[in-house]
């Protein structure tokens, strides 16, 4: 038996922290870390809802696994992009991303 | 071949074949523009095509007449089949062949053929003869479609097509600004008047849930008791359109201006086709007209005012071609009165009878006017004065036309006009208001017609003082026969007729023989070709004997009880008026009786009592509104053109605010999303 | 407070604290390491919720693969070792980000709580056996599509790594 309040608060907090990380960081990799936190919040929400309701298809857990997989794919591509940017510009500072060279 | 397999019944002339003569009547003239424009490059070839096809069209109409007379005509031949508009409404698009429409079709075909023959001579050196002939063909096809249509939609198509063709014909000499203005005027005025036609036809068709003419008439005949107002409204709309097309008050002024077109076009438009189309359409719906007293009354008043007003104007015109135009207005009003005074039993026969006779003598008069105007290079009184004295060859046919116009027995005009007067008198005695108004107007117009016909005749045969002196000299010369010797006289003197007048005006003065020959050549050229003259003679013959048509079973009119007193009184009055006009003309320079009328009245009449200015006054606010709209539109346009610049400036200004940092934008987007989410939660 | 509540609170607190440190630390590498802590304790939360397979996958994929990948990327982009103020945006923007993050957290939490209520609920974890049956039964097609996605991501990452780009003047000798 568990109170649903706790997972829900955790979801909100993780997502808010992730959003802060995305908005407050200049380094592209740190921004990615914020994104990972937001994805983790989403996965936790899936699992929570799946655990607290009669989830015969196990959709909550399956979706979380999918989200983790997609996150893996996303981060590999994103890191590839970041490396390419680094090779092209010499830094990965997002505040300078829009400046013309 | 056809006799063999029983597709042709020789006793009734019925033809069991998809293509009926009624189709050919419409299709053959319609083929003229196609063939002329596509195939021919030279005027001569175009003439061959158009003359042949219009003759074949006439032949088809006559064949149709024969079929109808023998009872073998198909009453409602289909065309392209019913339009698929779903259940609840039917648009059969079929033709309708009845005795009246067949008669009118023959008249239209005849006039069109005569006009085609005459045009070749009249526009011999016109580089745009081909276009003219093609337009005449299309015009004829449109009129035949209106005449033979059994479907309101087909009627509308033919009607609009005629409006467009009249624009082309009137504006044929488009290099002259007056012709252009006349064409625009005719088009716009009839167009404005056509708007109610669409509304009226829509009311009729929607009420009957069909555009089939027969269904419409049947439905509204039964529904007239319950839906009297709707029927009256629909008929009033139709009458408005008819007034526009037939140049009745208040749309009358386009028709005299349409005289700017070539004379064959005038003959076609004014004799048998466009102005008569109103009579034809109303004639098809006359059964409904009988049921609606308001519509009849309005039609009577409109026609009466037009008839009398146009008669007065005709008498005062300075230009004899415009005189004929105003007389057309007057005569068409007469036809419409023939429809307005019908008794519940009778059909449209009275109006159609006058339409037929009018088509004959008015086409004759217009074509003769074209001939004469070529001879003297003008149509004003000064030009035409005495032309028949100079060219007596034309005298017979002009005389026949004018006598028929004036309504002198036994010419066609007399018969049809007298029948209408009889009917109006009978209706008036029975206490019908419309008939009483009509009778009063008719009494005036009979006299007016006699007056302007007489005036025109006197002008045309007028002989100037110089001519009289010449004639006198010729007569005096003839006394010198003994002295000169008869052989010398025959050789050396100009030819004279039995009255001693010079023939054909060839020798206005004694001239060497060589010159006489030259002028003879000129005269040959100044005479229409044999075909055209044959057409004119045919029209003249029909103007004389056309009255006999009422005895045929094709027209259902009551000719057995003529009112002898009425006819006698009318003829006496006409004679008196003619004498009066003769007396007025004596001593005037051009034999013009109207010269006794004060100049300013004549000038005003020549301008149609300045109705044109009223039109312009009506148009001016509209034009003003258009100017306002144009100006607004210009502002708007400038604003729109400045819009890219303004938005570019705005973009530059906002670009200065932009940090070029993705995170800033991301922050803004997040703030917005959170705000939206908060609003959603709070407002839930 | 049930046992579940207690365990979840402990794991969740660690996770949140580590996440906060991950987004606020001045050390680049520390940030990645705190992420490991946060995600690992999150897998503890999964365990509490009865999703042991998800917890395992979380540990394996996130902690084992992704964070290592991030660390590699940090090395490859010559991240500075030690404290640096270069990683954060301006103070104003950080304040705004803080407000937005807090607002989002509050919004999400309040919405979710109001949606699920606060009644104690039985944790319906199920077993890995049933999860496997569902994953390779009902969800097999999305699963296969995901494998294709992974393949595409692999190829894309490879293509990006071999992309012929470089600073102006082709300094690092990458063939055009």
From TrEMBL, chain A:
<keyword id="KW-0520">NAD</keyword>
<feature type="transmembrane region" description="Helical">
    <location>
        <begin position="64"/>
        <end position="86"/>
    </location>
</feature>
<dbReference type="GO" id="GO:0005886">
    <property type="term" value="C:plasma membrane"/>
</dbReference>
<keyword id="KW-1003">Cell membrane</keyword>
<keyword id="KW-1133">Transmembrane helix</keyword>
<dbReference type="GO" id="GO:0042773">
    <property type="term" value="P:ATP synthesis coupled electron transport"/>
</dbReference>
<dbReference type="Pfam" id="PF00420">
    <property type="entry name" value="Oxidored_q2"/>
</dbReference>
<comment type="subunit">
    <text>NDH-1 is composed of 14 different subunits. Subunits NuoA, H, J, K, L, M, N constitute the membrane sector of the complex.</text>
</comment>
<keyword id="KW-0874">Quinone</keyword>
<protein>
    <recommendedName>
        <fullName>NADH-quinone oxidoreductase subunit K</fullName>
        <ecNumber>7.1.1.-</ecNumber>
    </recommendedName>
</protein>
<dbReference type="GO" id="GO:0048038">
    <property type="term" value="F:quinone binding"/>
</dbReference>
<comment type="similarity">
    <text>Belongs to the complex I subunit 4L family.</text>
</comment>
<keyword id="KW-0813">Transport</keyword>
<keyword id="KW-1278">Translocase</keyword>
<feature type="transmembrane region" description="Helical">
    <location>
        <begin position="30"/>
        <end position="52"/>
    </location>
</feature>
TrEMBL record, chain B:
<feature type="domain" description="NADH:quinone oxidoreductase/Mrp antiporter transmembrane">
    <location>
        <begin position="149"/>
        <end position="425"/>
    </location>
</feature>
<dbReference type="InterPro" id="IPR001750">
    <property type="entry name" value="ND/Mrp_TM"/>
</dbReference>
<feature type="transmembrane region" description="Helical">
    <location>
        <begin position="131"/>
        <end position="147"/>
    </location>
</feature>
<feature type="transmembrane region" description="Helical">
    <location>
        <begin position="20"/>
        <end position="39"/>
    </location>
</feature>
<feature type="transmembrane region" description="Helical">
    <location>
        <begin position="564"/>
        <end position="581"/>
    </location>
</feature>
<feature type="transmembrane region" description="Helical">
    <location>
        <begin position="295"/>
        <end position="316"/>
    </location>
</feature>
<feature type="transmembrane region" description="Helical">
    <location>
        <begin position="435"/>
        <end position="454"/>
    </location>
</feature>
<keyword id="KW-1133">Transmembrane helix</keyword>
<dbReference type="GO" id="GO:0012505">
    <property type="term" value="C:endomembrane system"/>
</dbReference>
<dbReference type="GO" id="GO:0003954">
    <property type="term" value="F:NADH dehydrogenase activity"/>
</dbReference>
<feature type="transmembrane region" description="Helical">
    <location>
        <begin position="153"/>
        <end position="170"/>
    </location>
</feature>
<dbReference type="InterPro" id="IPR003945">
    <property type="entry name" value="NU5C-like"/>
</dbReference>
<feature type="transmembrane region" description="Helical">
    <location>
        <begin position="397"/>
        <end position="415"/>
    </location>
</feature>
<dbReference type="GO" id="GO:0008137">
    <property type="term" value="F:NADH dehydrogenase (ubiquinone) activity"/>
</dbReference>
<dbReference type="Pfam" id="PF00361">
    <property type="entry name" value="Proton_antipo_M"/>
</dbReference>
TrEMBL record, chain C:
<comment type="function">
    <text>NDH-1 shuttles electrons from NADH, via FMN and iron-sulfur (Fe-S) centers, to quinones in the respiratory chain. Couples the redox reaction to proton translocation (for every two electrons transferred, four hydrogen ions are translocated across the cytoplasmic membrane), and thus conserves the redox energy in a proton gradient.</text>
</comment>
<keyword id="KW-0520">NAD</keyword>
<keyword id="KW-0812">Transmembrane</keyword>
<feature type="transmembrane region" description="Helical">
    <location>
        <begin position="95"/>
        <end position="116"/>
    </location>
</feature>
<feature type="transmembrane region" description="Helical">
    <location>
        <begin position="55"/>
        <end position="74"/>
    </location>
</feature>
<keyword id="KW-0472">Membrane</keyword>
<keyword id="KW-1133">Transmembrane helix</keyword>
<keyword id="KW-0874">Quinone</keyword>
<comment type="similarity">
    <text>Belongs to the complex I subunit 6 family.</text>
</comment>
<dbReference type="InterPro" id="IPR042106">
    <property type="entry name" value="Nuo/plastoQ_OxRdtase_6_NuoJ"/>
</dbReference>
<dbReference type="GO" id="GO:0005886">
    <property type="term" value="C:plasma membrane"/>
</dbReference>
<dbReference type="GO" id="GO:0048038">
    <property type="term" value="F:quinone binding"/>
</dbReference>
<protein>
    <recommendedName>
        <fullName>NADH-quinone oxidoreductase subunit J</fullName>
        <ecNumber>7.1.1.-</ecNumber>
    </recommendedName>
</protein>
<feature type="transmembrane region" description="Helical">
    <location>
        <begin position="32"/>
        <end position="49"/>
    </location>
</feature>
<keyword id="KW-1003">Cell membrane</keyword>
């Amino acid at each position: 038996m568990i109170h649903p309040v706790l997972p829900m608060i955790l979801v909100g907090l993780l997502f808010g922290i992730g959003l802060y990380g995305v908005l407050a960081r200049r380094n592209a990799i740190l921004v990615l870390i914020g994104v990972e936190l937001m994805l983790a919040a989403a996965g936790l929400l899936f699992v929570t809802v799946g655990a607290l309701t009669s989830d015969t298809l196990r959709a909550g857990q399956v979706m979380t696994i999918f989200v983790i997989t997609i996150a893996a794919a996303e981060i590999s591509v994103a890191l590839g992009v970041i490396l390419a940017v680094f090779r092209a510009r010499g830094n990965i500072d997002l505040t300078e991303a829009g400046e013309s060279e | 071949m056809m006799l063999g397999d029983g597709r042709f019944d020789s006793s009734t002339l019925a033809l069991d074949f998809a293509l009926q003569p009624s189709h050919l009547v419409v299709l053959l003239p319609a083929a003229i523009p196609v063939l002329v424009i596509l195939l021919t490059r030279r005027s001569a070839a175009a003439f061959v095509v158009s003359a042949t096809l219009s003759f074949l069209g006439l032949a088809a109409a006559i064949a149709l007449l024969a079929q109808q007379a023998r009872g073998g005509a198909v009453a409602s031949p289909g065309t392209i089949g019913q339009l698929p508009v779903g259940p609840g409404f039917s648009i059969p698009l079929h033709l309708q062949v009845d005795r009246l429409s067949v008669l009118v079709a023959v008249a239209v075909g005849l006039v069109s053929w005569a006009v085609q023959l005459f045009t070749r001579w009249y526009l011999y050196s016109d580089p745009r003869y081909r276009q003219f002939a093609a337009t005449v063909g299309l015009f004829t096809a449109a009129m035949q479609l209106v005449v033979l249509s059994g479907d309101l939609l087909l009627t509308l198509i033919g009607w609009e097509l005629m409006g467009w063709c009249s624009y082309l014909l009137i504006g044929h000499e488009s290099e002259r600004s007056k012709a252009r203005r006349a064409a625009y005027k005719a088009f716009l005025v009839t167009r404005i008047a056509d708007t109610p036609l669409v509304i009226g036809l829509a009311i009729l068709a929607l009420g009957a849930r069909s555009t089939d003419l027969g269904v419409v008439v049947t439905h509204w005949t039964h529904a007239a008791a319950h839906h009297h107002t709707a029927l009256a409204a629909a008929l009033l709309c139709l009458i408005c359109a008819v007034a526009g097309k037939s140049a009745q008050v208040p749309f009358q002024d386009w028709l005299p201006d349409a005289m700017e077109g070539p004379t064959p076009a005038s003959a076609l438009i004014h004799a048998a086709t466009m102005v008569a189309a109103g009579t034809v359409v109303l004639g098809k719906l006359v059964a409904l007209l009988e049921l609606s007293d308001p519509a009849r009354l309005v039609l009577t008043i409109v026609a009466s005012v037009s008839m009398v007003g146009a008669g007065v104007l005709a008498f005062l015109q300075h230009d004899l071609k415009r005189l004929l135009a105003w007389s057309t207005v007057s005569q068409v009003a007469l036809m419409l009165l023939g429809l307005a005074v019908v008794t519940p039993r009778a059909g449209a026969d009275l109006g159609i009878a006058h339409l037929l006779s009018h088509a004959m003598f008015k086409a004759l008069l217009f074509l003769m006017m074209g001939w004469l105007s070529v001879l003297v290079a003008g149509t004003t009184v000064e030009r035409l004065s005495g032309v028949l004295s100079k060219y007596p060859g034309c005298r017979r046919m002009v005389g026949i036309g004018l006598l028929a116009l004036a309504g002198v027995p036994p010419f066609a005009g007399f018969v049809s006009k007298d029948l209408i007067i009889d009917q109006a008198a009978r209706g008036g005695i029975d206490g019908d208001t419309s008939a009483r108004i009509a009778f009063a107007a008719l009494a005036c117009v009979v006299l007016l017609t006699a007056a302007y016909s007489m005036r025109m005749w006197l002008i045309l045969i007028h002989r100037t003082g110089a001519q009289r002196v010449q004639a006198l000299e010729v007569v005096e010369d003839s006394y010198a026969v003994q002295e000169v010797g008869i052989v010398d006289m025959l050789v050396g003197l100009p030819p004279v007729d039995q009255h001693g007048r010079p023939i054909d005006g060839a020798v206005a003065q004694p001239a060497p023989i060589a010159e006489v020959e030259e002028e003879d050549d000129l005269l040959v050229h100044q005479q229409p070709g044999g075909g055209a003259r044959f057409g004119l003679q045919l029209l003249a013959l029909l103007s004389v004997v056309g009255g006999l048509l009422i005895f045929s079973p094709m027209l259902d009119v009551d000719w057995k009880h003529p009112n002898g007193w009425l006819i006698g009184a009318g003829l006496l009055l006409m004679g008196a008026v003619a004498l009066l006009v003769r007396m007025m003309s004596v001593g005037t320079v051009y034999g013009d009786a109207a010269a006794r009328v004060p100049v300013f009245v004549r000038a005003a009449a020549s301008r149609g009592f300045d109705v044109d200015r009223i039109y312009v006054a009506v148009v001016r606010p509209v034009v003003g509104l258009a100017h306002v709209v144009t100006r607004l539109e210009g502002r708007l346009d400038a604003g729109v053109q400045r819009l890219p610049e303004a938005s570019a400036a705005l973009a530059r200004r906002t670009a200065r605010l932009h940090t070029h940092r993705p995170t800033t934008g991301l922050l803004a987007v997040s703030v917005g999303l959170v705000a939206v989410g908060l609003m959603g939660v709070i407002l839930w | 407070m049930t046992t579940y509540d207690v365990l979840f609170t402990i794991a969740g607190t660690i996770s949140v604290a580590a996440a906060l440190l991950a987004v606020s630390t001045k050390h680049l590498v520390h940030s990645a390491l705190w992420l490991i802590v946060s995600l690992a304790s999150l897998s503890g939360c999964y365990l509490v919720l009865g999703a042991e397979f998800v917890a395992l996958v979380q540990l394996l994929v996130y902690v084992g693969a992704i964070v290592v990948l991030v660390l590699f990327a940090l090395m490859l982009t010559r991240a500075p070792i030690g404290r640096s103020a270069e990683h954060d945006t301006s103070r104003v923007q950080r304040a705004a980000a803080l407000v937005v993050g807090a607002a989002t957290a509050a919004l999400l939490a309040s919405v979710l709580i109001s949606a699920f209520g606060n009644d104690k609920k039985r944790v319906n974890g199920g077993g890995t056996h049933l999860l496997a049956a569902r994953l390779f039964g009902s969800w097999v097609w999305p699963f296969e599509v995901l494998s294709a996605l992974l393949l595409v991501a692999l190829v894309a990452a490879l293509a990006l790594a071999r992309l012929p780009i470089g600073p102006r003047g082709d300094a690092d000798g990458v063939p055009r």
